[in-house]
Design goal:
Elements: E1 4-11, H1 15-26, E2 30-33, E3 36-41, H2 43-54, E4 63-71
Antiparallel strand pairs: 1-3, 1-4, 2-3
Length: 96
């Protein structure tokens, strides 16, 4: 099963729901900013994640975006540029 890399980001209006969404996304991806995650997901994992999040949000007030960056084997993170502090991928940071 091939994996696609997704940029997942959320805008949740309630603190309790926001915490639940944040914790759910920690289970599937790497946090790059507080409300932004990168995750390599199969189609099945994507569906499971959407179902899990669907139960945690208010559909009239909240938003979760799933942005498909393409096959996980490619490295779209190389195309990220930043203003201010440089972007460092957690996957590339070496722990000494």
């Amino acid at each position: 099963m091939s994996r696609h890399r997704f940029l997942l980001t959320y805008d949740i209006t309630d603190d309790k729901r926001r915490t639940k969404v944040h914790r759910a996304l920690l289970d599937v991806g790497d946090r790059v900013q507080y409300s932004v995650f990168v995750a390599d997901l199969t189609e099945r994992e994507l569906i499971q994640t959407r179902i899990k999040l669907r139960e945690r949000i208010n559909h009239d007030a909240d938003q979760v975006l799933f942005i498909d960056l393409g096959p996980a084997e490619t490295d779209p993170l190389e195309r990220i540029s930043a203003l201010g502090r440089p972007y460092l991928s957690l996957a590339r940071v070496q722990i000494v």
